């Protein structure tokens, strides 16, 4: 009984959203095969992004909302590829090669900032994302087309200034998914995309066994002690953020090649919210995350995205409600997971205190001091 | 930093650059214009390039198809009658775009691909 | 088990912090395989001495030190603790420095992991090497074996009993390649008797292998049991440096506490027979000062002293009763229950508290003296307020506040420019007097004073103590005074309780022998004499 109780307490976020999904499926009126084929597609599309969050959590920095910077770098890479008319897989490779140095730089920068905001990494990362928005818009709307000429008409705003708000990625669409596409019954499986995700999983597993991974786990638990043991805490934290930012860059490119178009100035922000929500639904906390959490989270969050708008529409007879549902999912998950984390910490402190109380009361019961 | 590590790093940097240059070259898209405006022999046709999904070109139309890379390409033109012309062609060196005129197509002969200078089209 | 070759010599070490001498001409030697017992009260200079030995940056930042340290006959001056570690000095601190989610092995090898290089190292450096867990485990097993204890190399630290944590720490130090000297700072403080026994025998085993040990402990019987020689520090000076043979625990306690000052209990008031404060099974969750189970009684009109070493829980008692930290148990004042966990309730039941944290809790630093003095009275007792519109709201009574401030400025000899001066501009001693005035303004029947003389000069100390004594004598105020300075407690209290490990180790009259106090602080009271006065 106690085991059940603590299992529920430990997995409360996952269980709540699992319940919502199970309830929503029949109301949505969607067929099983539709849901599954959608899930496969969305899983391939977006799990890479979510992996970007694992290392900073391991290093005790919470959810790296500053991964938005990496996503931005990926988008800049894509803009470059599309503007230079580089097509297909080669276009994606080029976008990645352009994005990686950018994201290393941006990751190093946000690592520096987050090191100066110890204990408030998450909210700082959040604000860093907004700050980056400003720079990115300045770059996209003014620098592009002025200092950096735009070569392709489809990339330019109608009025000729800067990059379009909605950019068609037709030329690179499916550049990864469609290299090898396997048909299994009614479902098509993007083999190469899944292979890339598998390689990333192996990388994370391997990384946790390296010295750097071990150091990240150490500083994630006790910064002071790690520092005293001679681990360069600041540098290790910066590296965690740099790797996270680079993964976010690649993840965003994979995400967008699947979608085939991008909202130039908002897609990166969505990526941040989405990834945070997914990993939290998967059962990760701001201090603990694993590959398992990513997989569970990606599946569950997309099951919610697919079913709840329709279920909401069916239940409330309003399409608006359905639309609200997906926003609710993103923000609701993030907020509830953060609140629950605080609640868990408090619970742990209460438990420790109960120990103190019990020993004093046991003394009292035994007759106490003379 | 020892020598071995230096060599590996330099190699990696070179590979990175080579990969970027290759991706830029091999992935570059070139517009290929299918000129079907000659109405002396009007015909509708669908164009398949490098085995991609077919693009339909109506009589009197002038269509742009993006072609990836300046390497050898296969083009096949399928007429409504079912007759098919399959040819290979190469982009003319230095051209930014190229043009194929449908009436000039003849079975067994190389399609006439003319380079188009960007300023001249349109 | 000294082999006769000298390992470490300290020569004429002196150190002052901002003109305050904390160490003076410290010299002693340590041979290979020798265990030295280093004892002294809090503030005697043990910590500073170890910081100097380790090259802690704080020493250089505060002006360095005088004297020389020789290791293996070579003068050394470590710039950072890492230099000291490289030279073969290991330190086990009082607090655990273990990573809770790591296993014994991972902690022993922390940041000294055995590594296997791979291709990625050539690109991104050696931190990309994979841990060689097999070798790490072998190393851990070897270190544990050297210690002669039973430890599971794969157990997580968070799941370990405290004793195992302590052994893991020591194993980590001896896992270093060239460790010659170990400094153990209160290693047994958290251990049970049996665990402590095991630790002592491992220390002997290490010494037999030629590792020298500086053993800091307030459990004096352990020192006599394990050390080869003993060095006693008091007020920054070495008062004794003798072989341990033939030295008794009582001797050490007396050396530690020092001059057997004739205590004058002359001015003390006579306290009544009735119990005024009754504390039963109090626990307080105050970080660093946990109170586990404390019961005591204070008579009406008594000055009750609470002493003990830092971190043992003496500060927690007052903070818990005043509701500043989560607490539980039974507290009655004048026959009435005090509601715990509610500072307002405590103030309303005629208790006042002078916090040890003057700048944090005690004072509104940016406000004037009169404000500070009247503040608590205003908040808790609605004094110095003029009701407006039939009591709908009230405004401050500036006049009565000023009168109040002037009264205390005079009686406590507060040196200031006037009641309008801001609290932060005053010296420490005068700030302390303001805190007292603030408490006195409540006219409490029971006053808790916590570390009232910490960090203030001798003259101010005397005034503070005399004021407390006078309020006790003239107004019959019951006072519970908490202090680290035993002499101070003995000079003004009717009875002195010593707190050890969150519990009352014993209560003694101030006239009791200093050695007895020393023994209580060392965790081995002369029997638990409970409330014996």
In short:
Chain A has 370 residues and is mainly alpha-helical. Chain A has helices spanning 2-10, 12-28, 32-51, 54-58, 67-83, 88-115, 121-143, 191-208, 211-221, 223-228, 233-259, 267-281, 291-316, 319-365; strands at residues 166-168, 181-184, 187-190, 261-263.
Describe the model.
Chain A has a domain at 35-287: ABC transporter involved in vitamin B12 uptake, BtuC (Orthogonal Bundle). Helix content of chain A is 73%, strand content 4%. Chain A has 14 helices and four strands. Chain A has helices at 2-10, 12-28, 32-51, 54-58, 67-83, 88-115, 121-143, 191-208, 211-221, 223-228, 233-259, 267-281, 291-316, 319-365; strands spanning 166-168, 181-184, 187-190, 261-263. In chain A, the strands form two sheets. Chain A has a two-stranded antiparallel ribbon with strand order 1-4. Chain A has a two-stranded antiparallel sheet with strand order 2-3. In chain A, α5 packs antiparallel against α6, α6 packs antiparallel against α11 and α9 packs across α11. Chain A is globular, with a radius of gyration of 23 Å. The relative contact order of chain A is 0.17. Chain B has one helix and eight strands. Chain B is elongated. Chain B has one domain (29-116): Sandwich (Immunoglobulin-like), CATH 2.60.40. Helices cover 20% and strands 37% of the residues of chain B. With 122 residues, chain B is α+β, with helices and mostly antiparallel strands. The longest helix of chain B is centred in the first third of the chain and has 25 residues, at 3-27. Chain C is α/β, with parallel strands linked by helices and 533 residues long. Helix content of chain C is 34%, strand content 26%. Chain C is built from 19 helices and 24 strands. Chain C has a six-stranded mixed β-sheet with strand order 6-9-10-3-11-12, with helices on both faces. Residues 260-266 and 526-533 of chain C have low confidence and may be disordered. Chains in contact: A-B, A-C, B-C. At the B-C interface, α1 of B face α5 of C.
- Say how many strands of chain A there are: 4
Straight-line distance between termini of chain A: 40 Å
Low-confidence runs of at least 5 consecutive residues of chain B? none
Percent in helix of chain A: over 70%
Number of strands of chain B: 8
Shape of chain A from CA axes? Answer: globular
Mean pLDDT of chain A: 88
Strand content of chain A: under 5%
**What is the name of the CATH architecture of the domain at 35-287 in chain A?**
Orthogonal Bundle
β-strand percent of chain B reads 35-45%
Overall CATH class of chain B: Mainly Beta
Main sheet specs of chain B? 4 strands, mixed
Instruction: Tell me the major beta sheet of chain A.
Output: 2 strands, antiparallel
């Amino acid at each position: 009984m106690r085991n059940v109780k603590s299992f529920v307490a430990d997995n409360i976020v996952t269980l709540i959203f699992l319940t919502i999904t199970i309830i929503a499926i029949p109301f949505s009126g969607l067929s099983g095969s539709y849901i599954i084929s959608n899930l496969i597609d969305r899983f391939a599309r977006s799990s890479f992004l979510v992996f970007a969050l694992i290392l900073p959590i391991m290093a005790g920095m919470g959810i790296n909302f500053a991964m938005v910077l990496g996503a931005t770098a990926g988008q800049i890479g894509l803009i470059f590829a599309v503007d230079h008319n580089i097509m297909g897989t080669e276009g994606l490779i080029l976008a990645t090669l352009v994005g990686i140095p950018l994201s290393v730089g941006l990751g190093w920068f946000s690592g520096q900032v987050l090191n100066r905001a110890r204990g408030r990494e998450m909210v700082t990362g959040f604000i860093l994302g907004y700050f980056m928005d400003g720079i990115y818009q300045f770059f996209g709307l003014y620098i592009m087309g002025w200092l950096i000429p735009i070569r392709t008409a489809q990339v330019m705003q109608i009025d000729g200034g800067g990059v379009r708000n909605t950019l068609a990625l037709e030329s690179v669409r499916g550049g990864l998914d469609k290299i090898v596409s396997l048909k299994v019954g009614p479902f098509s499986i993007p083999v190469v995309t899944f292979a890339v995700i598998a390689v990333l999983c192996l990388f994370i597993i391997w990384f946790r066994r390296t010295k750097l991974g071990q150091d990240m786990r150490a500083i994630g638990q006790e910064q002071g002690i790690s520092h005293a043991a001679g681990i360069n805490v600041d540098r290790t934290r910066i590296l965690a953020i740099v790797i996270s930012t680079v993964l976010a860059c690649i993840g965003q490119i994979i995400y967008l090649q699947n979608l085939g178009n991008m909202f130039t100035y908002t897609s990166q922000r969505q990526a941040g919210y989405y990834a945070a929500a997914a990993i939290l639904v998967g059962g990760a906390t701001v201090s603990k995350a694993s590959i398992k959490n990513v997989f569970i989270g990606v599946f569950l969050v997309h099951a919610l995205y697919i079913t709840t708008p329709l279920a909401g529409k069916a239940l409330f007879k309003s399409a608006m409600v359905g639309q609200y549902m997906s926003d609710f999912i993103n923000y609701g998950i993030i907020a509830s997971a953060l609140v629950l984390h605080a609640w868990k910490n408090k619970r742990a402190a209460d438990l420790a205190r109960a120990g103190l109380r019990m020993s004093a009361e046991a003394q009292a019961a035994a007759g106490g001091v003379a | 930093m020892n020598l071995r590590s230096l060599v590996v790093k330099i190699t990696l940097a070179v590979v990175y650059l080579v990969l970027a240059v290759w991706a830029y070259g091999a992935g570059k898209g070139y517009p290929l214009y299918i000129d079907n405006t000659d109405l002396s022999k009007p015909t509708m046709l669908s164009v398949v390039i490098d085995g991609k999904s077919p693009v339909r070109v109506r009589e009197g139309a002038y269509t742009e198809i993006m072609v990836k890379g300046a390497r050898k390409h296969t083009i096949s033109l399928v007429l409504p009658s079912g007759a098919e012309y399959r040819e290979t062609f190469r982009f003319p060196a230095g051209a930014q775009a190229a043009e194929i005129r449908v009436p000039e197509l003849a079975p067994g002969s190389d399609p006439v691909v003319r380079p188009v200078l960007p300023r001249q089209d349109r | 088990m000294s082999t006769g070759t000298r390992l470490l010599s300290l020569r004429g070490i002196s150190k002052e912090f901002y003109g305050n001498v904390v160490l003076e001409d410290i010299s002693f030697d340590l041979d290979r395989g020798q265990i030295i017992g280093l004892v002294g009260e809090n503030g005697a200079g043990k910590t500073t001495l170890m910081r100097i030995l380790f090259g802690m940056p704080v020493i250089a930042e505060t002006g360095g030190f005088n004297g020389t340290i020789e290791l293996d006959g070579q003068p050394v001056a470590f710039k950072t603790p890492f230099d000291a570690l490289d030279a073969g000095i290991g330190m086990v601190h009082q607090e655990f420095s273990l990573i809770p989610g790591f296993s014994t092995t991972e902690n022993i090898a922390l940041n000294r992991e055995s590594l296997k290089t791979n291709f990625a190292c050539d690109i991104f450096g050696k931190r990309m090497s994979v841990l060689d867990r097999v070798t790490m485990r072998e190393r851990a097993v070897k270190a544990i074996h050297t210690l002669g204890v039973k430890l599971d190399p794969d157990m997580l630290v968070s799941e370990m009993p405290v004793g195992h944590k302590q052994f893991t720490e020591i194993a980590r130090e001896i896992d270093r390649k060239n460790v010659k000297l170990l400094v153990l700072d209160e290693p047994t403080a958290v251990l049970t008797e049996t665990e402590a026994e095991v630790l002592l025998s491992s220390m002997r085993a290490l010494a037999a292998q030629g590792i020298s040990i500086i053993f800091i402990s307030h459990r004096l019987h352990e020192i006599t049991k394990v050390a080869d020689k003993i060095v006693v520090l008091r007020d920054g000076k070495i008062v004794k440096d003798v072989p341990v043979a033939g030295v008794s625990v009582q001797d050490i306690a007396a050396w530690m506490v020092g001059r057997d000052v004739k205590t004058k209990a002359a001015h003390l008031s006579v306290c009544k027979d009735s119990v005024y404060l009754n504390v039963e099974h109090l626990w307080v969750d105050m970080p660093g000062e946990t109170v586990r189970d404390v019961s005591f009684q204070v008579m009406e009109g008594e000055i009750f002293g609470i002493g003990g070493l830092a971190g043992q829980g003496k500060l927690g008692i007052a903070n818990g009763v005043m509701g500043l930290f989560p607490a539980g148990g039974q507290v009655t004042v004048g026959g009435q229950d005090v509601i715990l966990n509610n500072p307002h309730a405590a103030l309303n039941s005629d208790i006042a508290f002078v916090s040890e944290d003057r700048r944090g809790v005690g004072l509104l630093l940016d406000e004037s003296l009169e404000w500070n003095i009247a503040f608590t009275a205003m908040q808790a007792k609605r004094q110095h307020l003029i009701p407006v519109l039939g009591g709908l709201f009230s405004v401050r009574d500036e006049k009565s506040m000023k009168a109040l401030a002037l009264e205390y400025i005079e009686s406590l000899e507060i040196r200031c420019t006037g009641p309008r001066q801001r609290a932060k501009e005053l010296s420490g001693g005068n700030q302390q007097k303001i805190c007292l005035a603030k408490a006195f303004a409540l006219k409490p029947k029971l006053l808790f004073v916590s570390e009232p003389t910490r960090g203030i000069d001798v003259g101010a100390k005397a005034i503070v103590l005399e004021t407390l004594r006078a309020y006790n004598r003239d107004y019959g105020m019951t006072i519970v005074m908490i202090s680290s300075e035993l002499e101070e407690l003995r000079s003004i209290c009717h009875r002195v309780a010593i707190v050890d490990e969150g519990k009352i180790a014993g209560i003694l009259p101030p006239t009791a022998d200093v050695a007895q106090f020393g023994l209580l602080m060392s965790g081995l009271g002369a029997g638990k004499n409970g409330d014996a006065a």
